[in-house]
């Protein structure tokens, strides 16, 4: 469902900017099956996966499908969560640990303050998250089209 990410932190941020960001990290663990966040909840943190797999989901309206659809799987070096960066700071998707996950957790408000205080750092983080948004939007679109696009009627 997902391909290796061209937007992992090490490939996008300079060593200086990675170091600044990582100085705000704290290590956390999520057991398999843990809900990391749910769509509509307040987005106050974000994570970079150290090990394990996180699945991003789109909750589905009631009807033919129930529950949620997985739209992407994230692995080591990938960002989990971007809603912390944009008002109104509410999650646009849901996330679940599909395996035990070790991650770095960041306080969104603290990182936003750092971005405001250092325009070069802020620009680098903003461009990184923007690239992630572009990729995730395309992957979500493709996944939803796979599920909902009209299928051709077989001809005889």
Tell me what you see in this structure.
The mean pLDDT is 87. With 156 residues, the chain is α+β, with helices and mostly antiparallel strands. Helix 3 (108-117) crosses helix 4 (119-148). The chain is built from four helices and eight strands, in the order H-H-E-E-E-E-E-E-E-E-H-H. Strands 1-8-3-6 form a four-stranded antiparallel β-sheet. The chain has a four-stranded antiparallel β-sheet with strand order 2-7-4-5.
Short descriptors:
about 160 residues, alpha+beta, 4-stranded antiparallel beta sheet, 4 helices, globular
Secondary-structure element order, N to C:
HHEEEEEEEEHH
Q: Sum up the overall morphology in one term.
A: globular
The strand line-up of the biggest sheet is 1-8-3-6
- Determine the number of helices (DSSP H or I, runs of at least 4 residues): 4
Main sheet characteristics: 4 strands, antiparallel
Mean pLDDT across all amino acids: 87
Strand content: 25-35%
User: Level of helix content?
Assistant: 25-40%
Task: Give the class from helix and strand content and strand pairing.
Answer: alpha+beta
What does the radius of gyration come to?
Answer: 17 Å
Cα-to-Cα separation, first versus last residue: 32 Å
Low-pLDDT residue spans: none
List the helices and strands and how they pair.
Layout lengths: L8 H4 L2 H8 L3 E5 L4 E3 L7 E7 L2 E6 L8 E7 L4 E2 L13 E4 L3 E7 H10 L1 H30 L8
Antiparallel strand pairs: 1-8, 2-7, 3-6, 3-8, 4-5, 4-7
